[in-house]
Amino acid sequence: MTAIVGVRYLISSGGFALATRLKHPGLYRGLEGQMRREIGWSLASAAIYGIPAGIVAWGWQAHGWTRIYSDWNALPLWYLPVSLFAYLLIHDTWFYWTHRWMHRPALFRLAHSVHHDSRPPTAWAAMSFHPLEAITGAVVIPALVFLIPIHVAMLGLVLALMTLMGVGNHMGWEMFPRALVHGPAGRWLITATHHERHHAAYRGNYGLYFRFWDKACGTDIGLGDFGGSLDAAHRRRKRAAAEG
Ligand SMILES: [Zn+2]
Ligand SMILES: [Zn+2]
Predict the structure, then answer these.
(1) How far apart are CA 74 and CA 200, in angstroms?
(2) Total domain count for the chain?
(3) Does residue 170 contact residue 194 with C-beta atoms inside 8 Å?
(4) Nearest-ligand number for the alpha carbon of 96
(5) Does residue 217 lie in a domain region?
(6) Nearest C-alpha neighbor of 87 from the set 32, 178, 158
(7) Which ligand is nearest to the CA of 205?
(8) Is residue 204 part of a domain?
(9) Does 184 map to a domain?
(10) 151 CA distance to ligand 1 middle (Å)
(11) Looking at the domain assignment, is residue 200 inside a domain?
(12) What distance in angstroms lies between residue 192's CA and the mean position of ligand 2's atoms?
């Protein structure tokens, strides 16, 4: 499982890093050292994520312990989107509160500063967490599959969305159309433009998928504009050119 999580990370982050290179050439120039650190922390996190995931896979296959089901007719079809939404909502709630907690000074210094050492984050930062933070992230979905029934395909979709948004929110540019990000959907959904502001301000915008908790708790600080990171990329480019 650790190998699967690690390979999934390398493929998804590598794919988005390549997309970044094609769409915004030079955006990551000068960040090579940081990206190496991001990859190191992310692979360590993959090892941690693999342990509860492995226990779940084994418990499901060998013992039928979990509430994962594979027969499409085991539960009504309307339950499929409901279960998907429930998983995303609960994960988002867990993430919001643990993330806010990680921003308390002692915990920030101990653990979460690793994630914020990425200035600005790149596509490789998706799993760049201190092991303590990786543990809080790794237990959520494995715990939920023991509590809330979910079709194995919906579980796959949850994991795919988790990966897509985890990488996409850190890559330094917005992949979704402006009409979505700045339209009605963007008022409730979190994309890179929202999470970039969290990394720029070191506070606020703590959510994962939805802006609900940030809005309800007054921590939503609005959308970013990538101004800082694009300017910084420009400065790094000039510096690199001057150094030959
Ligand atoms: Zn943070
Ligand atoms: Zn982040």
Answers:
(1) 46
(2) 1
(3) no
(4) 1
(5) no
(6) 158
(7) 1
(8) no
(9) no
(10) 32
(11) no
(12) 9
